Amino acid sequence: MAERKRRRALLRMGAGISKSARVADRLFLPVVAGAALLTMLLTVFHRQIQEIVSPSPQPSGEQQGPRADVVAYTVDKVPISDPDSPVWDNIPHSRISLADQSIIKPLKLNVPAEPVKVKAAHDGEWIGFLLEWPDSKADTQAIKVKEFRDACAVMITSYPSPPEARFMGTANNPATILHWKADWQIDIEEGFQDLEKAFPNVSVDMYPLLKESIRDGKPPKTVDIPEFARVRLPGTWAGNPVSQLSKASPVEKIVAKGPATITTLPTQDAAGWGRWRDGVWRVVLAKKMKASDGQAGEMVIERGQTYSVAFTVWFGDGGDRGSRKNPSMLHTLYVE
Amino acid sequence: MPKVYNWQIGREMDYWYEESRPRRQAAAVFDTNKCIACQTCTVACKTTWTSGKGQEYMYWNNVETKPWGSYPMGWDVNILKMLGPQRWSLEGERYVYRGKTIFEAAAQSERVLGYLPSDLDYAYPNRGEDETNEIVVEEKFYLRMPHDLWFFYLPRICNHCTYPACLASCPRLSIYKRPEDGIVLVDQARCRGYRECVQACPYKKVFYNHVTRISEKCVLCYPAVEKGIWPRCMRTCIGKIRMFGYLNTPEKADPENPLDFLVHVKKVGLPLLPQLGLEPNIYYIPPIHVGNINFLRMLFGPGVDQAIQTYNKAIAGRDLELVAALLLNVSTDRIMTKFKVIGSSEVAGYDENGHEVVRIPLKEPAVVRPFYDERLQVYRHNIT
Ligand code: SF4
Ligand code: SF4
């Protein structure tokens, strides 16, 4: 009797179990299906959702190829020294935010309100970037002690690369930097910006090596100083690229393997040009896709590849130079 | 920031790099009591190093009249004002600087406290020349030591500091201190003209070249120094105020080394603005006639009172060895690492190989001629 009771009880329990199992069975499929659908949707719209949560720069126009922060579109011919070329009009831009420089002292802590607009294009031979940023004043002179020039730069390194690569590359990820300088450009545009430009009333009685060159108390033009007397222009004499009287391009091609390592590459074949109009700088910086200084670590740029890039702006009137600058984060560049 | 020891302020301090003293440190002592502001040093340097286009305004060596002169204008008052009032304290036998150095007072975003002079600041190298501390009024103008009315000349070059602010400030590592002699140089091939060093050097002894657009500074005539010869500003000094050589740290002071003797043994050679924390290596014998001792303490630190006392003793003929060492100033253009008083009438200097490079009498022989010359039948104006 007791045995029967116990069995019945067991049976009831079993019945209870099977009843709740049936409920679970009914719910299982829809739940799994729902989760799978959600995962799928999340995957598909991942980037869009991310954009809503934390917007990142992206090309504003039509997208082709894998999504990257900046895309270098194929064009017939990159206008390597014309920021006003209509070719740029058809290329969508990316808005790249500029950050402070808070890693290497001296720091620059204030950040420009406006991002820099970046366009990129290539023609199989050249890759060019058009940078556009507001700057109320064009600072093109660096003659006086307190004068600093405007400048901007594009840094390209391999992808993926460690976050430290943002600070001018690393030992294993050398960065190629294209550095445009407003004073170099004006040296090309108007001729070497000499002492007299900043000090029109300068008068001298003699330079020991140039006794005959002084007329009416005025110094000779620096570009006319004969070779032997350039020993009195120490930087020029030592071959410092900053001190050269004639410049071929306003864009210097540099390799860097971390802070304080920037080195002018032996082949200076980068191109570019800047134009300041109505409070806006528009500057083209371009390099050959094949590396002429591959041995020294220059980046080769190939179609269909992704690279890491960063953009930097220096505001001369704010005393920016060297590490006092506004660099962007590391972004991806896709070369169509 | 790493901690380094600065003996001039008697304590450890913050510096951008670890302590790394050169194998030996080139240094000099300038006796301000003897400078006549002839500017021969200035011109010697100018014609040697800075006579190119773009360097017109540069004086790697300049001589300013204190208290009013300064080049670039206000270099000293500007940095002292930025630093604000600071304090030395006497701890046992020695003075310890308890204020902040320019490394310690720097803003969070900077390496060094400093500023960039403007072009106008460089435009008046002779400002205040020969001007007295107060307007000359007849009643005050009588001779008494120290003087109520005074000025003195302060010749200045780069101090080839043990802890150079210029070097610390350069994010590109374009400035280096040579391990063999402590000379501080700007690499002319590497500098990119950021002017961080111009901003950081409190003595304003790095200059921006208007034409090459990079920075330059005093090279302490290193090609000469490498050959055992004095820098040009030093060996041409008309007033014979300068002694050039190598200086040891106080605990390694060699009393036979003329520099160690003047700076560490006799303590008459004092650093310029030691409170800034750079451990500068050009030392000054303070002027003994200046009526405002606080002004001198501000410029040369708390050792001034004692230095003046010791120097006065030598003038009074009560310190033969010090007189001897001072007589070696600009007595030769060879770098001496030892000196010795010979008997009590001569002093000799020796180079690092032990060769005697100079020997001079402690008292110049003088001949007194009769006021009236019988043979020529004339009176003489100058009889010695
Ligand atoms: S005096 Fe100025 S320039 Fe000379 S080493 Fe010192 S900090 Fe550098
Ligand atoms: S050469 Fe000598 S005496 Fe003349 S100004 Fe220079 S330091 Fe003074």
Tertiary shape of chain A: globular
Strand content of chain B: 15-25%
Per CATH, the architecture of the largest domain in chain A is Sandwich
Order of helices and strands of chain B: EEEHEHEEEHEEHEEHHEHEEHHHEEEEE
Spans of at least 5 consecutive residues with low confidence of chain A: 1-23, 46-66
Number of domains of chain B: 1
Measured by residues with Cβ under 8 Å of the partner chain's Cβ, the largest interface is: A-B, 43 and 38 residues
Gross morphology of chain B = globular
CATH architecture of chain B: 2-Layer Sandwich
CATH topology of chain B, by name, is Alpha-Beta Plaits
CATH C-level class of the largest domain in chain A is: Mainly Beta
Number of DSSP strand runs of chain A:
13
Would you kindly provide a brief summary of this structure?
The complex is a heterodimer of chains A (336) and B (384). By secondary structure, chain A is of the alpha+beta class. Chain A has helices at residues 2-44, 46-53, 182-190, 195-198, 234-237, and strands spanning 70-74, 94-96, 116-122, 126-134, 151-158, 175-181, 251-256, 263-264, 271-277, 280-288, 306-314, 326-327, 331-335.
